[in-house]
C-alpha cells in the first residue's frame, strides 16, 4: 500500500518522526542558571514539547503497523476487508498530515515567542530548529502517502484487487483442482447400476439343456 511503500523509501516519515521526537527528548528541555528545574525550550510551554514527542512516536508506530498490514494484505480474501485496509491507509495518511501541520505551526509559534532570558546560553537551539524543520517535511511526506493510497484505491477498483476473483499469488501453485462431483449425480449413477442375476438362474437354464450324443 501507499503508506507502507513510503515508509520504506527515503525520505521516510519514520526517519522524520525519529528526528522530531528524538530532538525534543534529548535537548528540548533547558533551565536557567539560577534554577534547577528544566522547562520546555519552546517558550517554556510543556504542551509544545509533549505534542511533538507524542505525534512523533505515534507516527513512527503507525508506519510499523502499516508495514505489517502491507505484508499481510495478499492473504486477505475478503473484498470488504481489502477495501477497508486501503481506505484506512488514505484516512490515516491524511490524518497524520493534518497533525504534522498543526505541530509545525504550534512549535514555530512557541519558538518565536521564546524569550532570550529563558535560555541565555542558547542551549538546544539546533534541536528545536531540527524539530520544526522535520515537522514541516513530514507534512508533505504524509500528503504523498495519502495520494499514493488513493491511486491504489482507484487502480484496485478497476482490477481484480476488489473482486471475488482475487487470489493470493503465494497460494497459486499452478496445479488444477480435482473436479467437483455433485452428490445427486453420484446417487443417480449408483441407482442405475444393476446387480448380476443370482446363481440359481444359471442352474435352471442348465437343467433345461440336453446334451446330444454324436
Characterise the protein shown here.
The protein has a two-stranded antiparallel ribbon with strand order 1-2. The chain is built from seven helices and two strands; from the N terminus they run H-H-E-E-H-H-H-H-H. Strand 1 and strand 2 (39-40) form a beta hairpin. The radius of gyration is 36 Å and the shape is elongated. The chain is mostly helical. The chain has helices at residues 2-8, 13-27, 46-72, 79-112, 125-157, 183-191, 199-207, and strands spanning 29-30, 39-40. Helix content is 63%, strand content 2%. It holds the Pfam family MARVEL. It is a multi-pass membrane protein. Residues 173-214 are annotated as: Disordered. One of its GO terms (cellular component) is neuromuscular junction.
Distance between the termini: 96 Å
Shape: elongated
| Helical amount | 55-70%
| Parts with pLDDT < 50 across at least 5 consecutive residues | 164-181, 186-190, 204-209
- The largest beta-sheet arranges its strands as 1-2
Strand content: under 5%
- Main β-sheet: number of strands, strand sense, barrel status? 2 strands, antiparallel
Name some characteristics of this structure.
single chain, 214 residues, mainly alpha, two-stranded antiparallel ribbon, 63% helix
What is this structure's SSE topology?
Elements: H1 2-8, H2 13-27, E1 29-30, E2 39-40, H3 46-72, H4 79-112, H5 125-157, H6 183-191, H7 199-207
Antiparallel strand pairs: 1-2
Helix pairs in contact: 1-3, 1-5, 2-3, 2-5, 3-4, 4-5
Please outline what is shown here.
InterPro entries: Marvel (IPR008253), Synaptogyrin (IPR016579). This protein has 214 residues and is an all-alpha fold.
Amino acid at each position: 500500500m501507499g503508506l507502507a511503500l513510503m515508509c520504506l523509501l527515503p525520505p521516510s516519515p519514520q526517519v522524520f518522526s525519529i528526528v522530531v521526537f528524538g530532538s525534543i527528548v534529548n535537548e528540548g528541555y533547558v533551565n536557567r542558571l539560577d534554577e534547577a528545574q528544566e522547562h520546555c525550550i519552546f517558550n517554556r510551554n510543556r504542551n509544545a514539547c509533549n505534542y511533538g514527542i507524542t505525534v512523533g512516536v505515534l507516527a513512527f508506530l503507525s508506519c510499523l503497523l502499516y508495514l505489517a498490514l502491507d505484508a499481510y494484505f495478499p492473504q486477505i480474501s475478503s473484498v470488504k476487508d481489502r477495501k477497508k485496509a486501503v481506505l484506512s491507509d488514505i484516512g490515516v495518511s491524511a490524518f497524520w498530515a493534518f497533525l504534522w501541520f498543526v505541530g509545525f505551526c504550534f512549535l514555530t509559534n512557541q519558538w518565536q515567542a521564546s524569550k532570550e532570558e529563558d535560555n541565555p546560553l542558547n542551549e538546544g537551539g539546533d534541536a528545536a530548529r531540527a524539530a520544526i524543520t522535520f515537522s514541516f517535511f513530514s507534512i508533505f511526506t504524509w500528503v504523498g502517502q495519502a495520494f499514493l493510497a488513493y491511486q491504489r484505491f482507484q487502480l484496485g477498483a478497476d482490477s481484480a484487487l476488489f473482486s471475488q476473483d482475487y487470489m493470493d499469488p503465494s497460494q497459486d501453485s499452478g496445479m488444477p483442482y480435482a473436479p467437483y462431483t455433485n452428490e445427486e449425480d453420484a446417487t443417480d449413477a449408483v441407482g442405475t447400476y444393476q446387480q448380476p442375476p443370482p446363481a440359481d438362474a444359471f442352474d435352471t437354464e442348465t437343467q433345461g439343456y440336453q446334451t446330444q450324443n454324436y
